[in-house]
Amino acid sequence: MTFLATRVAFFVLVLFFALSSFSHSFLSTHLHEESIFIVLSYSREDLCGKPQLEGILQALNEGPHKDLPIHKFYLHSKRLPEKEVQKRAQAAIRQIRATHPRIVITVDDVALLKVGLALNHMKDTFVIFSGINGDISSYNRMSPFLKGRIPTSNITGVLEHLFLNQQVDFLKLIGKWPCSLGILYSTDFMGEKGRQQISSRLKAAGVRDNIRYFSVSNMKEIAEKAELINKDQSICAYFPLVLSIFDQSKGERVALDAMVPEITSRVHKIDIAVNKSFTKAGFFGGANVDMFHMGYQAGQMAGMLLDGVDIKRLPVEDAERFQVIVNKKRALELGIRLSPSVLCLVDELI
User: Fold this and answer.
1) Strands 146-147 and 150-151, bridge-based pairing
2) Residue 6 has pLDDT above 70, yes or no
3) Helix 164-173 to helix 189-204 angle, to the nearest 10 degrees?
4) Is the separation of the CB atoms in 107 and 40 below 8 Å?
5) 25: exposed, middle or buried (C-beta count within 10 Å: 0-12, 13-18, 19+)?
6) Model pTM?
7) Above 50 in pLDDT, residue 3?
8) In terms of domains, do 171 and 181 share one?
9) How far is Cα 178 from Cα 168, in angstroms, rounded to an integer?
10) Which of 22, 72, 160, 261 gets the most CB atoms within 10 Å of its CB?
Protein backbone atom coordinates (compact mmCIF):
# COMPACT_ATOMS: atom_id res chain seq x y z
CA MET A 1 0.00 0.00 0.00
CA THR A 2 1.40 3.41 -0.97
CA PHE A 3 2.01 6.14 1.56
CA LEU A 4 -0.93 8.19 0.16
CA ALA A 5 -3.27 5.19 0.31
CA THR A 6 -2.22 4.55 3.91
CA ARG A 7 -2.96 8.17 4.86
CA VAL A 8 -6.37 8.00 3.17
CA ALA A 9 -7.24 4.71 4.90
CA PHE A 10 -6.17 6.16 8.24
CA PHE A 11 -8.28 9.28 7.67
CA VAL A 12 -11.33 7.20 6.71
CA LEU A 13 -10.91 5.05 9.84
CA VAL A 14 -10.66 8.10 12.11
CA LEU A 15 -13.70 9.67 10.44
CA PHE A 16 -15.68 6.45 10.86
CA PHE A 17 -15.01 6.27 14.60
CA ALA A 18 -15.72 9.98 15.04
CA LEU A 19 -19.07 9.67 13.27
CA SER A 20 -19.90 6.52 15.23
CA SER A 21 -19.14 8.27 18.50
CA PHE A 22 -21.17 11.32 17.48
CA SER A 23 -24.06 9.14 16.34
CA HIS A 24 -24.08 7.20 19.62
CA SER A 25 -23.90 10.41 21.66
CA PHE A 26 -26.63 12.06 19.61
CA LEU A 27 -28.96 9.09 19.78
CA SER A 28 -28.34 8.64 23.49
CA THR A 29 -29.06 12.30 24.19
CA HIS A 30 -32.10 12.22 21.92
CA LEU A 31 -33.52 9.21 23.77
CA HIS A 32 -32.83 10.76 27.16
CA GLU A 33 -34.47 14.02 26.25
CA GLU A 34 -37.70 12.53 24.98
CA SER A 35 -38.65 9.51 27.03
CA ILE A 36 -40.22 8.98 30.45
CA PHE A 37 -40.98 5.49 31.76
CA ILE A 38 -43.56 5.09 34.57
CA VAL A 39 -43.75 1.78 36.45
CA LEU A 40 -46.91 1.30 38.50
CA SER A 41 -47.15 -1.39 41.17
CA TYR A 42 -50.77 -2.24 40.55
CA SER A 43 -53.38 -2.08 37.76
CA ARG A 44 -54.65 0.75 35.56
CA GLU A 45 -57.72 1.47 37.72
CA ASP A 46 -56.11 0.89 41.10
CA LEU A 47 -57.43 3.13 43.88
CA CYS A 48 -53.92 4.08 45.02
CA GLY A 49 -51.98 4.20 41.76
CA LYS A 50 -54.46 5.96 39.47
CA PRO A 51 -54.63 9.32 41.32
CA GLN A 52 -50.85 9.39 41.69
CA LEU A 53 -50.45 8.81 37.95
CA GLU A 54 -52.93 11.61 37.24
CA GLY A 55 -50.91 13.96 39.45
CA ILE A 56 -47.63 12.98 37.76
CA LEU A 57 -49.08 13.61 34.30
CA GLN A 58 -50.60 16.94 35.38
CA ALA A 59 -47.25 18.22 36.66
CA LEU A 60 -45.46 17.12 33.50
CA ASN A 61 -48.17 18.65 31.32
CA GLU A 62 -47.72 22.04 32.98
CA GLY A 63 -44.00 22.24 32.16
CA PRO A 64 -41.92 22.61 29.01
CA HIS A 65 -41.60 18.82 28.67
CA LYS A 66 -45.31 18.12 28.14
CA ASP A 67 -44.76 16.68 24.66
CA LEU A 68 -42.32 13.99 25.74
CA PRO A 69 -43.47 10.42 25.04
CA ILE A 70 -44.45 8.55 28.20
CA HIS A 71 -44.50 4.79 28.51
CA LYS A 72 -46.55 3.19 31.33
CA PHE A 73 -45.91 -0.31 32.67
CA TYR A 74 -48.21 -2.05 35.20
CA LEU A 75 -46.91 -4.79 37.51
CA HIS A 76 -50.39 -5.98 38.65
CA SER A 77 -48.90 -7.02 41.99
CA LYS A 78 -52.27 -7.18 43.78
CA ARG A 79 -53.65 -9.67 41.27
CA LEU A 80 -50.74 -11.80 40.08
CA PRO A 81 -48.71 -14.41 42.00
CA GLU A 82 -45.30 -13.26 43.22
CA LYS A 83 -43.47 -15.24 40.54
CA GLU A 84 -45.46 -13.53 37.76
CA VAL A 85 -44.92 -10.11 39.31
CA GLN A 86 -41.18 -10.78 39.34
CA LYS A 87 -41.30 -11.72 35.65
CA ARG A 88 -43.09 -8.49 34.82
CA ALA A 89 -40.56 -6.51 36.86
CA GLN A 90 -37.70 -8.10 34.92
CA ALA A 91 -39.49 -7.29 31.65
CA ALA A 92 -39.81 -3.65 32.74
CA ILE A 93 -36.10 -3.51 33.61
CA ARG A 94 -35.17 -4.95 30.20
CA GLN A 95 -37.31 -2.34 28.42
CA ILE A 96 -35.78 0.46 30.47
CA ARG A 97 -32.23 -0.69 29.80
CA ALA A 98 -33.02 -1.04 26.08
CA THR A 99 -34.63 2.40 25.67
CA HIS A 100 -32.54 4.23 28.30
CA PRO A 101 -35.14 6.85 29.28
CA ARG A 102 -34.06 10.04 30.99
CA ILE A 103 -36.65 9.60 33.78
CA VAL A 104 -38.13 6.50 35.40
CA ILE A 105 -40.97 7.09 37.88
CA THR A 106 -42.02 4.25 40.19
CA VAL A 107 -45.46 4.36 41.84
CA ASP A 108 -45.84 2.63 45.24
CA ASP A 109 -43.45 0.28 47.04
CA VAL A 110 -43.46 -2.78 44.79
CA ALA A 111 -42.32 -0.81 41.75
CA LEU A 112 -39.43 0.78 43.64
CA LEU A 113 -38.40 -2.46 45.30
CA LYS A 114 -38.51 -4.67 42.18
CA VAL A 115 -37.61 -2.16 39.44
CA GLY A 116 -36.32 1.14 40.81
CA LEU A 117 -33.55 -0.25 42.99
CA ALA A 118 -32.27 -2.36 40.08
CA LEU A 119 -31.62 0.93 38.24
CA ASN A 120 -29.51 2.43 41.02
CA HIS A 121 -26.45 4.17 39.51
CA MET A 122 -27.78 3.69 35.94
CA LYS A 123 -25.93 6.31 33.93
CA ASP A 124 -27.94 9.31 32.68
CA THR A 125 -31.25 7.93 34.00
CA PHE A 126 -32.99 9.30 37.08
CA VAL A 127 -35.43 7.30 39.21
CA ILE A 128 -38.20 9.11 41.11
CA PHE A 129 -40.48 7.19 43.45
CA SER A 130 -43.96 8.14 44.66
CA GLY A 131 -46.15 6.74 47.42
CA ILE A 132 -43.65 4.81 49.52
CA ASN A 133 -45.10 3.31 52.71
CA GLY A 134 -42.16 1.14 53.74
CA ASP A 135 -39.21 2.38 55.77
CA ILE A 136 -37.06 4.15 53.19
CA SER A 137 -33.93 3.40 55.25
CA SER A 138 -34.54 -0.35 54.78
CA TYR A 139 -34.65 0.12 50.99
CA ASN A 140 -31.51 2.22 51.24
CA ARG A 141 -29.72 -0.63 53.00
CA MET A 142 -30.58 -2.97 50.11
CA SER A 143 -28.96 -0.67 47.55
CA PRO A 144 -27.58 2.60 48.96
CA PHE A 145 -28.86 5.72 47.23
CA LEU A 146 -29.34 8.18 50.11
CA LYS A 147 -27.41 9.84 52.90
CA GLY A 148 -30.16 10.90 55.26
CA ARG A 149 -32.61 12.26 52.71
CA ILE A 150 -30.02 13.55 50.23
CA PRO A 151 -29.55 11.47 47.06
CA THR A 152 -26.09 9.99 46.60
CA SER A 153 -26.82 8.38 43.22
CA ASN A 154 -29.74 8.74 40.80
CA ILE A 155 -32.79 8.03 43.02
CA THR A 156 -35.09 10.38 44.95
CA GLY A 157 -38.82 10.82 45.42
CA VAL A 158 -41.88 11.30 47.64
CA LEU A 159 -42.89 9.31 50.73
CA GLU A 160 -46.54 8.65 51.53
CA HIS A 161 -46.78 10.55 54.77
CA LEU A 162 -49.83 9.48 56.80
CA PHE A 163 -51.38 12.35 58.73
CA LEU A 164 -52.20 10.34 61.84
CA ASN A 165 -52.05 13.25 64.29
CA GLN A 166 -54.76 14.87 62.18
CA GLN A 167 -56.72 11.60 62.12
CA VAL A 168 -56.72 11.47 65.92
CA ASP A 169 -57.70 15.16 66.08
CA PHE A 170 -60.65 14.47 63.77
CA LEU A 171 -61.81 11.57 65.98
CA LYS A 172 -61.70 13.95 68.94
CA LEU A 173 -63.81 16.48 67.08
CA ILE A 174 -66.56 13.96 66.36
CA GLY A 175 -66.51 12.67 69.93
CA LYS A 176 -64.88 9.29 69.28
CA TRP A 177 -61.76 9.66 71.41
CA PRO A 178 -60.14 8.33 73.58
CA CYS A 179 -60.51 4.71 72.53
CA SER A 180 -58.58 1.80 71.04
CA LEU A 181 -57.82 1.66 67.33
CA GLY A 182 -57.89 -1.47 65.22
CA ILE A 183 -55.68 -2.27 62.24
CA LEU A 184 -57.21 -4.80 59.85
CA TYR A 185 -54.40 -5.73 57.47
CA SER A 186 -53.61 -8.33 54.84
CA THR A 187 -50.49 -10.44 55.24
CA ASP A 188 -49.20 -9.63 51.76
CA PHE A 189 -46.26 -7.27 51.15
CA MET A 190 -48.23 -4.01 51.11
CA GLY A 191 -50.53 -4.96 53.98
CA GLU A 192 -47.49 -5.60 56.17
CA LYS A 193 -45.81 -2.35 55.09
CA GLY A 194 -48.99 -0.40 55.81
CA ARG A 195 -49.33 -1.99 59.24
CA GLN A 196 -45.73 -1.16 60.12
CA GLN A 197 -46.07 2.44 58.96
CA ILE A 198 -49.35 3.12 60.75
CA SER A 199 -48.21 1.39 63.93
CA SER A 200 -45.00 3.43 63.99
CA ARG A 201 -46.78 6.73 63.30
CA LEU A 202 -49.50 6.05 65.90
CA LYS A 203 -46.86 5.36 68.53
CA ALA A 204 -45.08 8.57 67.56
CA ALA A 205 -48.41 10.36 68.01
CA GLY A 206 -48.67 9.00 71.55
CA VAL A 207 -51.05 6.11 70.82
CA ARG A 208 -48.99 3.21 72.15
CA ASP A 209 -51.09 0.87 74.24
CA ASN A 210 -54.42 1.18 72.44
CA ILE A 211 -53.71 -0.53 69.12
CA ARG A 212 -55.31 -3.87 68.20
CA TYR A 213 -54.00 -5.88 65.25
CA PHE A 214 -56.10 -8.17 63.03
CA SER A 215 -54.29 -9.99 60.22
CA VAL A 216 -56.11 -11.73 57.35
CA SER A 217 -55.03 -13.83 54.38
CA ASN A 218 -58.35 -14.82 52.77
CA MET A 219 -62.01 -13.81 52.54
CA LYS A 220 -63.09 -16.16 55.32
CA GLU A 221 -60.66 -14.54 57.73
CA ILE A 222 -61.90 -11.08 56.70
CA ALA A 223 -65.41 -12.03 57.82
CA GLU A 224 -64.12 -13.48 61.09
CA LYS A 225 -61.80 -10.60 61.99
CA ALA A 226 -64.37 -7.98 60.97
CA GLU A 227 -66.80 -9.54 63.44
CA LEU A 228 -64.13 -9.44 66.16
CA ILE A 229 -63.50 -5.73 65.56
CA ASN A 230 -67.21 -5.05 65.69
CA LYS A 231 -67.63 -6.92 69.00
CA ASP A 232 -64.63 -5.29 70.72
CA GLN A 233 -66.24 -2.52 72.76
CA SER A 234 -62.90 -0.76 73.34
CA ILE A 235 -62.42 -0.10 69.61
CA CYS A 236 -64.12 3.01 68.24
CA ALA A 237 -62.36 3.11 64.85
CA TYR A 238 -60.09 0.97 62.71
CA PHE A 239 -57.81 1.18 59.67
CA PRO A 240 -58.81 -1.13 56.79
CA LEU A 241 -55.52 -2.12 55.12
CA VAL A 242 -56.64 -5.21 53.26
CA LEU A 243 -55.16 -4.24 49.92
CA SER A 244 -55.20 -7.62 48.23
CA ILE A 245 -56.58 -10.97 49.36
CA PHE A 246 -57.21 -14.47 48.03
CA ASP A 247 -60.86 -15.26 47.33
CA GLN A 248 -61.33 -19.02 47.57
CA SER A 249 -64.67 -18.91 45.75
CA LYS A 250 -63.08 -17.26 42.70
CA GLY A 251 -59.69 -18.93 42.94
CA GLU A 252 -57.90 -15.59 42.52
CA ARG A 253 -56.70 -12.51 44.36
CA VAL A 254 -59.10 -9.59 44.64
CA ALA A 255 -58.33 -5.95 45.41
CA LEU A 256 -59.67 -3.60 48.05
CA ASP A 257 -62.68 -2.22 46.18
CA ALA A 258 -64.15 -5.74 45.91
CA MET A 259 -63.78 -6.27 49.66
CA VAL A 260 -65.29 -3.04 50.96
CA PRO A 261 -68.87 -4.40 51.22
CA GLU A 262 -67.61 -7.53 53.00
CA ILE A 263 -65.92 -5.35 55.63
CA THR A 264 -68.38 -2.47 56.08
CA SER A 265 -71.39 -4.79 56.34
CA ARG A 266 -69.80 -6.43 59.40
CA VAL A 267 -68.02 -3.54 61.11
CA HIS A 268 -70.30 -0.76 62.36
CA LYS A 269 -67.48 1.51 63.44
CA ILE A 270 -65.50 4.33 61.85
CA ASP A 271 -63.30 3.10 59.00
CA ILE A 272 -60.28 5.42 58.92
CA ALA A 273 -59.29 5.79 55.27
CA VAL A 274 -55.62 6.40 54.54
CA ASN A 275 -56.40 8.19 51.28
CA LYS A 276 -59.28 9.63 49.27
CA SER A 277 -59.59 6.56 47.09
CA PHE A 278 -60.41 4.44 50.17
CA THR A 279 -63.12 6.94 51.13
CA LYS A 280 -64.58 6.88 47.61
CA ALA A 281 -64.62 3.08 47.76
CA GLY A 282 -67.02 3.21 50.71
CA PHE A 283 -65.09 3.71 53.95
CA PHE A 284 -65.89 6.58 56.34
CA GLY A 285 -62.77 8.67 55.67
CA GLY A 286 -60.96 11.21 57.81
CA ALA A 287 -57.70 13.07 57.22
CA ASN A 288 -56.65 11.49 53.92
CA VAL A 289 -53.29 11.89 52.22
CA ASP A 290 -53.84 13.67 48.90
CA MET A 291 -52.68 10.98 46.45
CA PHE A 292 -53.05 13.25 43.42
CA HIS A 293 -50.82 15.92 44.93
CA MET A 294 -48.28 13.31 46.04
CA GLY A 295 -47.98 12.21 42.41
CA TYR A 296 -47.86 15.86 41.39
CA GLN A 297 -44.83 16.37 43.67
CA ALA A 298 -43.07 13.45 41.95
CA GLY A 299 -43.94 14.91 38.55
CA GLN A 300 -42.50 18.27 39.58
CA MET A 301 -39.26 16.52 40.58
CA ALA A 302 -39.13 14.90 37.15
CA GLY A 303 -39.57 18.28 35.50
CA MET A 304 -36.73 19.81 37.51
CA LEU A 305 -34.38 16.95 36.64
CA LEU A 306 -35.28 17.33 32.97
CA ASP A 307 -34.44 21.03 33.35
CA GLY A 308 -30.94 20.08 34.52
CA VAL A 309 -31.30 20.55 38.29
CA ASP A 310 -28.70 18.53 40.23
CA ILE A 311 -30.45 15.58 41.91
CA LYS A 312 -28.56 16.33 45.13
CA ARG A 313 -30.68 19.48 45.35
CA LEU A 314 -33.84 17.33 45.39
CA PRO A 315 -33.97 15.53 48.76
CA VAL A 316 -36.62 12.94 49.50
CA GLU A 317 -39.91 14.64 50.40
CA ASP A 318 -42.96 13.73 52.46
CA ALA A 319 -46.39 14.02 50.85
CA GLU A 320 -47.33 17.62 51.59
CA ARG A 321 -51.10 17.71 51.64
CA PHE A 322 -54.02 16.03 53.30
CA GLN A 323 -57.75 16.51 52.91
CA VAL A 324 -60.51 15.84 55.41
CA ILE A 325 -62.92 13.77 53.35
CA VAL A 326 -66.04 11.96 54.55
CA ASN A 327 -68.23 9.42 52.78
CA LYS A 328 -71.81 10.64 53.39
CA LYS A 329 -73.43 7.24 52.86
CA ARG A 330 -71.09 5.53 55.30
CA ALA A 331 -71.59 8.30 57.88
CA LEU A 332 -75.35 7.76 57.69
CA GLU A 333 -74.90 3.99 58.05
CA LEU A 334 -72.87 4.58 61.21
CA GLY A 335 -75.35 7.14 62.58
CA ILE A 336 -72.73 9.88 62.66
CA ARG A 337 -73.99 13.45 62.36
CA LEU A 338 -71.30 16.05 61.84
CA SER A 339 -71.89 19.36 63.61
CA PRO A 340 -71.72 22.62 61.63
CA SER A 341 -68.37 23.42 63.26
CA VAL A 342 -66.94 20.06 62.12
CA LEU A 343 -68.45 20.37 58.64
CA CYS A 344 -66.53 23.64 58.25
CA LEU A 345 -63.31 21.61 58.51
CA VAL A 346 -64.36 18.97 55.97
CA ASP A 347 -62.81 19.56 52.55
CA GLU A 348 -65.11 17.22 50.69
CA LEU A 349 -68.22 15.11 51.25
CA ILE A 350 -68.39 12.17 48.88
Assistant:
1) antiparallel
2) no
3) 70
4) yes
5) exposed
6) 0.81
7) no
8) yes
9) 9
10) 160
